[in-house]
């Protein structure tokens, strides 16, 4: 990988290794979220969002996430095991609106560059990301421990925050 390759090429033009390294490991895409319109919350997965609909994030996280490291315990089989797990690829960048504003893929896609806390700019370390409050670490509950009948009690705003 060349230095600051993300400033020289588009997401489309990145190698697999470069693409994977763009993920900052924040874990926000593993939070459960739902789409609500003026009438009621939608049930089940969807891949579109319409005018007047809003994405709500919760602090409930997928049961396959290691809540200490914030990494997927079944990364290679994730989309088989969790059908609504969003696997972002070059082919489905149109779905990037499902990602939180701080998602590094979304930032690059929207021309906002990588933030100063990104591991690529911090010798691969996540400490700056933790300090910036951009990781889910320490503020989540596993779906295995949550009361899913009262899903709305878990709505949180912090996944929508971003910092340069
Ligand atoms: S939200 Fe984006 S940057 Fe963060 S872990 Fe998910 S894919 Fe990676
Ligand atoms: S399957 Fe893995 S990558 Fe997908 S939401 Fe669950 S923990 Fe995250």
From TrEMBL:
Domain of life: Bacteria
Any Pfam family hit: CxxCxxCC
PANTHER family: UPF0260 PROTEIN YCGN
Name of this protein: YcgN family cysteine cluster protein
């Amino acid at each position: 990988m060349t230095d600051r390759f993300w400033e020289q090429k588009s997401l489309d033009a990145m190698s697999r290794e470069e693409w994977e390294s763009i993920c900052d490991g924040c874990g926000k895409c593993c939070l459960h979220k739902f789409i609500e319109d003026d009438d009621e919350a939608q049930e089940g997965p969807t891949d579109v969002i319409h005018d007047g609909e809003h994405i709500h994030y919760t602090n409930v996280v997928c049961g396959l996430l290691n809540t200490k490291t914030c990494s997927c315990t079944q990364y290679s089989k994730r989309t088989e095991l969790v059908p609504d797990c969003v696997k972002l690829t070059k082919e489905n960048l149109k779905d990037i609106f499902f990602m939180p504003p701080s998602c590094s893929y979304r930032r690059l896609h929207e021309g906002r560059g990588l933030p100063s806390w990104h591991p690529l700019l911090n010798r691969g370390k996540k400490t700056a990301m933790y300090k910036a409050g951009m990781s889910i670490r320490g503020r989540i509950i596993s779906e295995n421990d949550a009361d899913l009948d009262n899903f709305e009690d878990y709505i949180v705003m912090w996944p929508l925050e971003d910092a340069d």
